Amino acid sequence: MKTGPLxxxxxxxxxxxxxxxxxxxxxxxxxxxxxVADAMALEAGLAxxxxxxxxxxxxxxxxxxxxIGVARHMKDNVQRIEDxxxxxxxxxxxxxxxxxxxxxxxxxxxxxxxxxxxxPLGWMAENRWTxxxxxxxxxxTGLPVFAPARVERMSREGPRARLHLEDGGVLDGAVVIACxxxxxxxxxxxxxxxxxxxxxxxxxxxxxxHELPHEGVAYEFFMPAGPFAILPLTGNRSSLxxxxxxxxxxxxxxxxxxxxxxxxxxxxxxxxxxxxxxxPRWTYPLxxxxxxxxxxxxxxxxxxxARAIHPIAGQGFNLGLRDAAALAEVLVDAKRAGxxxxxxxxxxxxxxxxxxxxxxxxxxxxxxxxxxSNDHASLRAVRGLGLSIVDRIPPARKxxxxxxxxxxxxxxxxxxxxxxxx
Length: 422
Hints:
By secondary structure, the chain is α/β, with parallel strands linked by helices.
């Protein structure tokens, strides 16, 4: 007896990571019929040891999470970012306790969001808590999630697209959205090429407790081997993103506790007091990869499937959420107008909205990583001068803060904190 698809509706999403689930929930709440398929059961991604990273959520990203009902599950586990200090040099190179060093650039959220309770520059959230919040919201809203269910391929038949699962199941929709990461299978099967390169760097990620309060300040130190970021978490804790040459990063990950403590204290310095590493260490290879096209026949790329960039600006997940906000608005508008959601005209509208921003940010992070990841004396002098000049020009500081916050260009409805409805 012939059976039909496991799901038939408007949209099918391959990939239930943070960007994929955010998009799915947004579409589901807006009134579209949507389903998600992921190779891993949702609960498997909630364990502390699954993902040690933390994400700096831009204030527009937080607005999106609030508007789709996810942020309320995160409020007890997020930290406001009140200030960002960018320093060209090591933490102990002229750094005063709790303050910047030589060649610094200081971003203060009060310049763009005045008042004691004004909107912060962003929020720091450990990825595991974001995943918990997304999973809870998906369950509450009744979002159809097929997991574990590994995607094998996509096919097209007239005005419909089908996602074929390895177990033989089929999910049917007017459009398929690839949220399956930087090694996206669907992108490769569609013949969409990528441009970019691998860096000879890895990012070591871990959490450290410190004696003194961070006061909501995020630090970005530019070191010869790559950026060293100290990002505030709840309590007297910070997330470290420690960029090193690949072999050095692997050695740091493999060190015993005493060896890592010594290396950490040498790099971190003591401006936040006594340090205590917490939890495991992870390393991630770093590179730049941007898809030449964000859309194909009844297919759209979102998040890392569309582009993966250096974490130097903390924009990875934020870019995925900006993709989600733009694509959700395009699809909701199309549904409201009675258009074919997978038609070239609809999907190309999404590509035009997101591709230029992605390319500019990818090129920008690539340039900054190359320009700052060295110890050339003349370049250090130029860098320090440039940071100091920008620090003295309020309109420039405000521009960069709004740029990092995602509040430039044509802002999608969800990034304004407003709900989408058909």
